[in-house]
Structure formats: structure tokens, C-alpha cells
Amino acid sequence: MADLTQFGQLGPAVDSEASDGTVPPSDPIELQEHDSTDPFEISSEDAEFLDRVTADGSAPFEVTYTSDGRVRIHTGSNVGVLTLPSGTQVEVTPKASVTSLLWTLQYAFDTPVDSMGYKTKFSTDSSFFDAIGVLFWNELTTVLDQGLHRDYVRTQAVEDHVRGQIDVQRQLQRPGPQPTDFAVEYDEFTTDTILNRAVLSATRALVRLVRDPTLAGRLRHEEQRLRQFTSVRPVSLEAVNRIELSRLNEHYEMLLDLTRTVLSREFFEDITAGENRALALFVDMNNVYERIVERACRAAASELGELDVEGQGSIPTVVEGPHARSMRPDVIVRGPDEQAVAVLDAKWKPGVSASDVYQLTSYIFALETDGALVYHGGYEHDGEESVVDSEYSLRSVALNTNPSVDSYGDYVDALERSARGYLSSVIRE
Known about the structure:
The protein is an alpha+beta fold. The chain folds into four domains: 1-94 and 265-282, no CATH class; 98-150 and 191-261, no CATH class; 151-190, no CATH class; 305-428, Trna Endonuclease, Chain: A, domain 1. 34% of the residues lie in helices and 21% in strands. It has helices at 44-54, 101-109, 128-146, 168-172, 194-209, 213-227, 237-241, 253-263, 285-304, 354-367, 408-428; strands at 29-32, 61-65, 71-75, 78-83, 89-93, 151-159, 165-166, 182-190, 268-270, 278-284, 308-311, 331-334, 340-347, 370-375, 385-388, 392-398. Strands 11-12-13-14-16-15 form a six-stranded mixed sheet, sandwiched between helices. The protein has a five-stranded mixed sheet with strand order 1-5-4-10-9. It has a three-stranded antiparallel sheet with strand order 6-8-7. The longest helix is centred in the last third of the chain and has 21 residues, at 408-428. It is globular and about 70 Å long. The two termini are 29 Å apart. It holds the Pfam family McrBC. Residues 1-37 are annotated as: Disordered. InterPro entries: McrC. This is McrBC 5-methylcytosine restriction system component.
């Protein structure tokens, strides 16, 4: 499964002389993927924040300065919202390659939101945070309706009777010559687990971020429900990333993905930066698109009935020795005999690069099958085909991620129809 919490590696900002106030070119600053602002004046507080979050090169945007101290913000393939300490907001939206950001995220996460009745266009009326918040709310209510997962949690306490094991070291440190209570350690079967604490932390963060008052109210209501069973305590991202779901809590799968996104390094919060907190939440569209391609192909293969789809499958390397590396293509399509009939690599970008072709070619040779580079809607070279080693087909294919439709159902139909068109051609061959 694609990880939605990864950043591209970007260069750090340079030092500059910042002004006393931020003067954005628009309010909010609106950018698309792979875009840049015009230079604008920035306060020292905002500049310090940007320098801090871009210092290690892992931020979803890049910052440069002009000779007179003005700043430019450069975006990559991440979409989302950045709020500076001054309150200046930067919104990064997808290019015309998607009809609706909410529909795109909804399809990638396989999350129903029809009951919410929210606007599905990315705009100042329906912010990026609202798109994430709607998906999160739906998954959270589903989990709460099915019941919070319980697990055994190691607990240390002081009790008036022996429970579990006496913590000898702590007991000896107890004051008084003859203490009447006991320092004990035991396993408690409880809902107050790291998983539920992480979900609560993400809920509390989103309550502060979403713009829509109805959505904020619904999230706040679910927060109160959670707090009846789960304590508000810090949860490290490392601990969240170590969570492994089982058969007993697999209904948390999508909610855990969204929780990791909100609590990951993509979410910055500077509580010391003046009156306003500096916030950012971004999603890498490369990883979102990998999910979309896999899900669309699964749906198409299921309807065709002759194919099976394997996402992020591991395949043998064609290199032996110390330079060997594991290969994990985004999608492997297999026939009834379980032999690969096509290998797909999802590409959320406008054109073919040499590295794209070399990567897919290595998959083709390893699996001895045809391959396709799968681009988003609007890709002008859709259908182009080359031949690898006089034997295998290498195509460029575009999924219809930007159909002219009025409903999410029509969006899904158009998207999966384009995937079905490609897989149908694989069967015919």
C-alpha cells in the first residue's frame, strides 16, 4: 500500500534579511503543483518558520530569497495548505489533471462521503483541510459505530491491594516505614491504547484546521465520544508507525492511514510563533495516484473476470550480486494461470523521462511481459506504444482523472472505464 506520508527531497532555504511584515501577493496565496510565487515581503517570524521547516530538505515545498530579502515559495507534487505564523495562507491545488480533489482523495482512500453533502470542489469555501476532514470524519464514525478496539496495555499504578506483580524497586522507594498500598504493574484490557490515542490526537488537530463550521462541529462531537474511552496523551509518530493491525481491528485501516497523514512530519505546528500557530498539511499526489491506479485496475479486472491485480508486488531482480535491488512495481496484472500479462508504473507528472522508461523496462524484462506507464487525465501522448527488445510492448496510458461530470459516481465510472479499456486490450492480445 502506498505511503501517503512521504516528502520529496527539496533544497533548504537560504539566509535572508526579512522585513517586519508579510505582504502576500494574494490572500490566500494560490498555487498549483510545480508552481512558484512572485517574490513578496515576509516578516522575520514567518521567515524563521519557513527556514526551520525546510532546513533538512524534507519539506513539501522549497523557499528561496531574492537579493533584497523577499521570498519565493516553490511547490512540487504535493498539494495542501500552509499557514504561516502571521496568518498568511498558501493553498497548493492539483493542476487540471483532477476534476475534484475531494473525489480524488475519496477514491484513493476508498471512503464514502456522500452522506455529508459537502461541496466537492477545491476552493476557499471547501479547503484542503476540509477534504481531509470529511474523509477522516467518515472513517472515524465507522470505527466508533463498530466499536473501539481494546488491547492489553502494560500499566503501572499504586493500589491498595496487590494486582498483577509488585514493582519491587518502586515499592522500596515508597515513603513511610510500613506503606499500606502497593506499587504494582499489570496488563489492563482497555480502549486507552496507542492506536486510539493517535486517532484522538488527529481528531483534535483537524478540529482546529477545518473551515466548515458544520464539519468542525461533527469532528468535535466525535472527539468528545473518543475522550470517554481514551486519554489525551502525546503519541509519537514512531509509535504510530509501529502499529500493526490484526483481524480484530482491521476496520481501522483507512482511519489509521489518515491518522498517520495528519500526525506525520507533513503536519507542522509551531505553538511558540506569536498569536497564530503555523500549520501545514500536505499529501504527495504521487502516492495518492498510485492508490488510484491500483484501485481502478482492481475494479476493471473484477468486471472483466479474467485478470487478477497485485499492488506493490515484489518481483525478482534481473541483477545478481551486491548491486541487486528489490523491485516493487505499482501494479502487476496476472492472467488465469497467474502469469504476469502486464506491469504498470503510475506517473503523476506531465511527461516521460528516461528514468521512467528504464525503470519500467527493468520490470518488463524481470517479468517477461508487456508494460505501461500510467499517467493522469489530460496526458497528450495517451496510447503511444514502443517495442522492447523486439518482443514486449511499452505503452503510455492515461486514466481519466478529470472527466466533466457532476457526481462522484460518474467520476468513478469514467475513471474505471478508462482502466477497463487498457486491460481489455491486454486480454485481446
